Amino acid sequence: MFFYTIRRLIGAIMMLVVMSIAVFLLFYASPTDPARLTCGKNCTPQGIAQNRAYLGLNEPLQVQYGHFMKGLFADRKFPDNPKLQKEHPELITKCDAPCLGYSPLQNSTVWAYLKPRLPITLGLTLGAFVMWIFGGVLLGILAALRRGKFVDRLLVSLALIFYSFPTFFISLLLLQTVVFKWGWLQTPGYVSPSAGIGDYLYNMFLPCLTLALVYAAAYIRLTRTYMLETMGEDYLRTARAKGLGNRSIIFKHTLRAALTPILTIAGLDLGALLAGAPITETVFNYPGLGQAAVQSAVTFDLPSTVVIVLLSATFVIVANLIVDLLYAVVDPRVRY
């Protein structure tokens, strides 16, 4: 297990390095002038030149990447130009490690802009993840045990309906019915956990339910399919013949064997969702990473966009690393 974990960690680190190079080249080596994008929509040629010098974009690309990677472990100063730092010391902005760049449009470092948004997206994602995993897997087990009966057909039909709806439609539908028409809940708005756990969970319920309904619909069908495939195995027939209880057969043997492919998809979904749920956060006006991604794309805030993409890819890689480690727990054969 130890060497298996080390191999997976080394692979994840290599993927992170390759991913950072690819993202950096994608945005900063493109034909479009990065200095023009980071200067806003209405910018003069003089402003573009000043912005290029301020952000160090006039240096070779490999030097820019080296400065960016160095900023993860050491402080940086903007303007990223020693000559300008000496001529205009009043313009210096210190960027503490981890320094992910400076956003002229936000007039702050990128990490200072995104750091308070990260817990919001993290709470929204984990809440939705818990809801869709428990709901989707348990309902999938129920559908598999009632195969061909009314409960099975009802659950599969509802799963297909919710899986077909886009996220923004479910968000608006819940707001229109649950909040405005029936008045069961108040209009949700983000509340910090420090203001009260009860208020925090209350306001997080509807956005989490929106995401959970979409993902749980897929997990109902997946769990049902893998459970039915596993239930036909010979070793389960032998277990029943020996008098093993149904609960032990379902949860200890059948579900454990069916969890491996479900874990794969869960890791990808969790990583993608941690990258930000832009539609849900925009509809419910939650200032998370998803909303920041939409705003940075609209305002051509390139430094923020690059960091959001890097964080998104990092979340996916880390989520897959966790899934790889869980494989060894669910299926001991993977360790070898």
Description:
The chain has 336 residues and is mostly helical. It has two domains: 111 residues, no CATH class; 220 residues, MetI-like (MetI-like fold, Orthogonal Bundle), CATH 1.10.3720.10. 71% of the residues lie in helices and 3% in strands. It is built from 15 helices and four strands. Strands 1-2 form a two-stranded antiparallel ribbon. α8 crosses α10 and α10 crosses α12. It is globular, with a radius of gyration of 25 Å. The model has no long low-confidence stretch (mean pLDDT 83).
Supply Rg: 25 Å
Q: Mean pLDDT, rounded to whole units?
A: 83
- What is the succession of H and E elements? HHHHEHEEEHHHHHHHHHH
CATH architectural category of the largest domain = Orthogonal Bundle
Count of the separate structural domains: 2
The backbone outline, from C-alpha atoms, is: globular
- CATH homologous superfamily of the largest domain, by name? MetI-like
Helix vs. strand class: mainly alpha
Q: Please, how many helices?
A: 15
**Strand line-up across the major sheet:** 1-2
Secondary structure blueprint with pairings:
Blueprint: H1 2-28, H2 34-37, H3 45-55, H4 61-70, E1 76-78, H5 82-87, E2 93-95, E3 102-103, E4 108-109, H6 110-114, H7 118-145, H8 150-164, H9 167-181, H10 197-231, H11 234-241, H12 246-274, H13 278-283, H14 289-298, H15 302-330
Antiparallel strand pairs: 1-2, 3-4
Overview features:
336 residues; mainly alpha; MetI-like fold; two-stranded antiparallel ribbon; two-stranded antiparallel sheet; 15 helices; 4 strands
